[in-house]
C-alpha cells in the first residue's frame, strides 16, 4: 500500500513536469523522489508517468489517479489543521470543574474560552473531586479542574492549576462572641464545610482533631454559596476559600477568624485524557491557569482577621 510521501512525490512531479523540480520542492534528492514514485507504481501495478516526455507527463491512468491523489493530500491537510489551527476547533469539550472554581473564576474562563474558540461546544459538569475523577476514568469527561491528582492507572496528563488559601469566617455577632470566649466556646460552635466526600471536609476534621476537638459539629453542603449564606446567617463558622468571600468581608457580612495554624490549602490541577484532544486541552489548561491567576490578583489580601482568645495569636 502506498503512503502520503509517495503521493506527494507523484503529485509534484506531475505539477512541475520534472523529477528534479519535484525533488527540489520536497527538499529531497532526485533519486529519492524517483524511488518513491517507483514504489507507488509497484503498489498500483501500473506506470503512472511517461518518463520519455519533456516535460514529464502522466499516463492515461496516471491522469485519472492524479485527481484522486490530490484529494487524498487535501484531506490529509484538512485533518491536520484540526490540530494545528486551535482557533478553528469545532468539537465538544466535556469539562468537569469543582464547585469552588465554578463559583469564582469559571465564568470569566468560559467567556474567554468561547471568545478564543467560537466554534467550540462545551458540556460543563460541576461536582466534587471524587465524582469528577470517576467520570474522567469512565471517559464521560475529557478534562477536569479538581483536587486529588491523577487516578492510578489512568492514561492522562496533569498540570498545576491554582491554589486557594482556606480560612474560617463568621457573621459579626458570632465573631464577637468567639472573641470573648475560649477554646470551649470555639469547640461548641458549629462548623460549615463542603460535603463529607470532599477533601476539605476530611481535612477540617483532622485539623479540629489536632486542636483536641474530637467530635465537632459540622454542617455539610455541596455548594460554596450555601456555606457562605449559612455563615452570613450566623449558623456556624464557615470554612471557605479566602478569595471567594472577599466581597462578603468587605461588605461587613463576614469576618475572618485568625488561627494559630493555617488550614490546609485547596490545591487544584488540570487533568485531561491523553486520548482526547491532548494539544487542545493543554491550550485550555493554560487559559484556565491565567484566569485563575487574574482572579487571585483581583481578590487579594483581606482585612485583618478577628482575634479570638485561648487558641489564636494574641
TrEMBL record:
Q: Where is the signal peptide?
A: none
> What's the superkingdom here?
Bacteria
List the InterPro entries hit by this protein, alphabetically: LysR_HTH_N (IPR000847), LysR_subst-bd (IPR005119), WH-like_DNA-bd_sf (IPR036388), WH_DNA-bd_sf (IPR036390)
Which residue numbers delimit the HTH lysR-type domain?
A: 2-59
Give GO MF terms, alphabetically. Answer: DNA-binding transcription factor activity; transcription cis-regulatory region binding
Keyword entries, A-Z? DNA-binding, Transcription, Transcription regulation
| PANTHER family per the UniProt record, alphabetical | HTH-TYPE TRANSCRIPTIONAL REGULATOR, TRANSCRIPTIONAL REGULATORY PROTEIN
State the family it belongs to. Belongs to the LysR transcriptional regulatory family.
Recorded protein name is LysR family transcriptional regulator
Amino acid at each position: 500500500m502506498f503512503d502520503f510521501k509517495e503521493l506527494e512525490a507523484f503529485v509534484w512531479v506531475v505539477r512541475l513536469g520534472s523529477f528534479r523540480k519535484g525533488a527540489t520542492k520536497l527538499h529531497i534528492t532526485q533519486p529519492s523522489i524517483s524511488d518513491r514514485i517507483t514504489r507507488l507504481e509497484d503498489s498500483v501495478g501500473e506506470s503512472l508517468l511517461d518518463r520519455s516526455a519533456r516535460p514529464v507527463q502522466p499516463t492515461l491512468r496516471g491522469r485519472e489517479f492524479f485527481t484522486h491523489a490530490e484529494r487524498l493530500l487535501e484531506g490529509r491537510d484538512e485533518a491536520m489543521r484540526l490540530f494545528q489551527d486551535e482557533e478553528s476547533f469545532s468539537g465538544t469539550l466535556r469539562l468537569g470543574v469543582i464547585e469552588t472554581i465554578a463559583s469564582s473564576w469559571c465564568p470569566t474562563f468560559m467567556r474567554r474560552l468561547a471568545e478564543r474558540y467560537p466554534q467550540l461546544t462545551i458540556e460543563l459538569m460541576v461536582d466534587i473531586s471524587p465524582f469528577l475523577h470517576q467520570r474522567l476514568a469512565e471517559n464521560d469527561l475529557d478534562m477536569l479542574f479538581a483536587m486529588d491528582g491523577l487516578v492510578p492507572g489512568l492514561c492522562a496528563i496533569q498540570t498545576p492549576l491554582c491554589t486557594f488559601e482556606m480560612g474560617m469566617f463568621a457573621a459579626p455577632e458570632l465573631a464577637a462572641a468567639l472573641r470573648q470566649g475560649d477554646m470551649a466556646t470555639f469547640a461548641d460552635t458549629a462548623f460549615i464545610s463542603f460535603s463529607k466526600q470532599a477533601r476539605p471536609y476530611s481535612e477540617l476534621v483532622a485539623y479540629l482533631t489536632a486542636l483536641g476537638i474530637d467530635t465537632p459539629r459540622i454542617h455539610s453542603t455541596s455548594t460554596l454559596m450555601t456555606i457562605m449564606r449559612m455563615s452570613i446567617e450566623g449558623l456556624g463558622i464557615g470554612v471557605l476559600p479566602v478569595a471567594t468571600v472577599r466581597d462578603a468581608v468587605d461588605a461587613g457580612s463576614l469576618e475572618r477568624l485568625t488561627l494559630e495554624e493555617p488550614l490546609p490549602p485547596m490545591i487544584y490541577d488540570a487533568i485531561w485524557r491523553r486520548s482526547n484532544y491532548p494539544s487542545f486541552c493543554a491550550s485550555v489548561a493554560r487559559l484556565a491557569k491565567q484566569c485563575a491567576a487574574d482572579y487571585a490578583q483581583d481578590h487579594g489580601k483581606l482585612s485583618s482577621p478577628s482575634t479570638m482568645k485561648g487558641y489564636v495569636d494574641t
